[in-house]
Amino acid sequence: MDEKLSRKLRILADAAKYDASCSSSGAPKRKADVGGLGSTVGSGICHAYTPDGRCVSLLKILLTNYCLFDCAYCVNRRSSNVKRAKFSVDEVVTLTVEFYKRNYIEGLFLSSGIIRSPDYTMEQMLLVAKKLRRDHGFRGYIHLKTIPEASPWLIEEAGLWADRLSINLELPTETSLERLAPEKDGASIESAMAQMFERIEEAREERRHFSPAGQTTQMIVGADETTDQDVLRTSAKLYGHYDMKRVYYSAFSPIPDSSAILPLKSPPLMRESRLYQADWLLRYYGFNVDEIASGGEQGMLDLDVDPKLAWALKNRHLFPVDVNRAEREMLLRVPGLGARAVDKIVVARKHTTLRLEDVARLTSGLKRARPFLITADHHPKAKLDRLDLRERLIEKPEQLSMFV
Amino acid sequence: MTLHRITLKCGADLQGFRRAVRWLIAEELAPQHVVFAIDDAPSLFGNEQTGDAPAVTIPKGVAQLIEHVVCHCDPERYALLYGLVWRALNGERDLLEVASDPLVHRIDMMARSVRRDLHKMHAFVRFRRMKGEEVERFAAWFEPEHFILAAAAPFFVDRFRSLDWTILTPLGSIHWNREALSFGLPARREDAPDEDSFEEGWRGYYESVFNPARVNPTAMRAEMPKKYWRNMPETAAIPGLIQTASQRVERMIEQEASMPAKRTPERALEAMFDQDPKSLEELNAIIAKAGPLVPGATQAVFGEGPLHADIMFVGEQPGDQEDLQGRPFVGPAGKLLTKAMGEAGIVREQAYLTNAVKHFKFDQRGHRRIHAKPTAGEVKHYRPWLMKELELVKPKLVVALGATAVLALSGKATPITRSRGRARFGDYEGYITVHPSYLLRLPDEATKREAYEAFLTDLRRIRDLAQADPETGELPLAAE
Ligand code: SF4
């Protein structure tokens, strides 16, 4: 691989890394044709992990980091002094194919700074996808970032080549968007999301290919004053209106050459991981935004304990819950019990009466669950009412892992 | 009772185990009377030979678990699995549902460990191109934890069908020659190429996507345990990345916001949003370049007629004739429309005629190409272009011919029978009537004539509406 290309790759990968989405999931299962290259597997594959614990699944790069826009939170904004580079369409195609053949990646995640015009930029990105699919019979994963300011027919086309499309909302409120991303416009972002949502649904019904892995989005957390509760409200809306497959949260992180209107310090990474946990509760555990927020203070989530535990601590009158008798909905609300553990409990208890050691085999969160659970051989009694319960359940930092 | 000894081959001996299970069940030998041994060579002692026995039916879940767990490296795996089978066949059919049962739990953990190893093999194998060969051939060295080669192979075949590749491991090797899969002897690390010209670039990529502000090696190691690192070229960068992370972050924070080095590119900014096609020619060029959504059409068929025509007619999609000639409304339905327009006093050349969908979609039946109706999603795909076309033509009145045109103009499906007559499409005065091909399809002459008369009535109203005073909306006399 020649050195110039290597250098560009470093610049344009570095510029793309603030996008949190890495997943290669959700595409219909495909295999390589004779003469073609690539396949997809349902839940995607992480081919490596970087020392920040993030998964490397797709070749995530920008076509170029030259940009006419001036979004304050972004390294690539036109007023920043970072090094710039631009790939040719063929260079991106070559990198994707050669990396893919060596089993480094599941496919391509292509985004771009805006050069010349949104349409021109989007057309270049489409050209990459088309070449991969048509000239190389590439059947691996393609995620394209959609430029909401581009003409609607380009969005129509993008869905034909991509497995997943995404537009980053970046800022959870319209006012922040106006202040920090002057060229962007909330209305056109929403209308592009709506267009993609409609087309994805129709194509699914008609069994045609249009972004079969759906759409996702990302919000930056901590670059403005928005509370967790408002962030989650926005997420709930995005899930509800546009059937987002995922909303990614990206803790605002200091960037080289950052803008003067941004906070100097990044929010604790824990805030981001609590938001992911809350997001999970929203989607799979039957919680609503206000319930989740009630576990914290003034619209902010409790950073010391996970949001389900935080909610339970403030609603102790609803506990303890009997593992052998409670409804599934209530079991899902027990701290430390994940949805999978709950499903196993519900099936197992048809055949047997569960004891504490049985539950221990089904979840790794027993320590948190214990004070809230009744089993055949265990009752928390007054422990549940102890004033220091919260303190006793705070996780030690080294045991933390995000459950995303 | 004596202990019964079963010897199985080294590795994942699924066949041998199945055979043994059949025989043991037929002999009604409970697990406590059986020991499983693993051997490379067939045993010298004949007494432990199992005979053929009829098939046994075991629950599906158990059979699936067996397939995974025989790959596990634990020598106890067969004994544990036989214990599971025995219980499932002796009164505990639904045993797997009790996930909390100690044996079920243990076997489940083993299956999970095998699946994880499989997944990690799919993820962490790194191919290197073999040197000095003309055709591209790739080889990789990998060290799996369990006996998973056979289980892992199909994934690589599905993905790299068109490449020649070999995966070498201490437990055996897999070869694919673009046609057939074969398994070979264990190999050594030295048998694989020791470098690849893309590794440098890949390592650079890996280093660049790391964000030093989020350093978290524990999370990394949980998903990418150290034992895999040896065979992954990018991991050489890890110590350096971790070491320098905090310095890099400090530097970023200390650095004051700098002044932009370049001036604001005013002209480029002004031009940036001026991207819309300005003429029908520009728009048509975009449509032509995109190509047909459903493959097959000869060419895109564009609208025809003057800008700012009083009336814009929108049909469904070009037909066979239109597709060949590249002009709208020139086939049988188009001819009928032209005739009716003439009778209603509308000059075809003064109207603008176009279709909702710009490419012919058809089913091939022998030599004939039979019109196939575009789906709602297909109509919507073309809709943004139609909207732009409408904006450029700016007619006084836009006429939807048939349900597809209504869907295209309004974005919603509406039956013609209920909505026929005057309509509103966004900013435009509109009218809804049938598509002329509908008139051609009617079975008997009487209904045909009647329908044609109704169509003519519509066209006359359309003519009058298009002549209405744009200010007052007043129609010429005798119109309503
Ligand atoms: S449009 Fe905004 S967020 Fe996107 S690259 Fe340009 S400056 Fe960054």
UniProtKB/TrEMBL annotation, chain A:
GO function terms (MF aspect): catalytic activity; iron-sulfur cluster binding; metal ion binding
Which controlled-vocabulary keywords does the entry list? Iron, Iron-sulfur, Metal-binding, S-adenosyl-L-methionine
Required co-factor(s) are: [4Fe-4S] cluster
Write down the SMART domains for this protein, in alphabetical order.
Answer: Elp3
- Output the InterPro entries linked to this UniProt entry: Aldolase_TIM (IPR013785), DNA_rSAM_put (IPR023874), Elp3/MiaA/NifB-like_rSAM (IPR006638), Endo/Exo/Phosphatase_dom_1 (IPR051675), rSAM (IPR007197), rSAM_sf (IPR058240), RuvA_2-like (IPR010994)
One Pfam family here? Radical_SAM
According to the entry, every stretch annotated as the Radical SAM core domain falls at: 51-288
> Which PANTHER family does its entry note?
ENDONUCLEASE/EXONUCLEASE/PHOSPHATASE FAMILY DOMAIN-CONTAINING PROTEIN 1, TYPE II SECRETION SYSTEM PROTEIN K
Q: What is the recorded name of this protein?
A: DNA modification/repair radical SAM protein
From TrEMBL, chain B:
Superkingdom, natural source: Bacteria
Question: Would the keyword Hydrolase turn up in this protein's UniProt record?
Answer: yes
Keywords, ordered alphabetically: 4Fe-4S, DNA damage, DNA repair, Hydrolase, Iron, Iron-sulfur, Metal-binding
Q: Name one GO biological process term.
A: DNA repair
In terms of Pfam families, this protein maps to:
DUF4130, UDG
Record-annotated membrane-spanning stretches: none
Name used for this protein in its record: Type-4 uracil-DNA glycosylase
Please state which protein family the record places this protein in: Belongs to the uracil-DNA glycosylase (UDG) superfamily. Type 4 (UDGa) family.
Provide the Uracil-DNA glycosylase-like domain boundaries: 302-460
One MF term in the entry's GO annotations: deaminated base DNA N-glycosylase activity
Biological source species: Microvirga aerilata
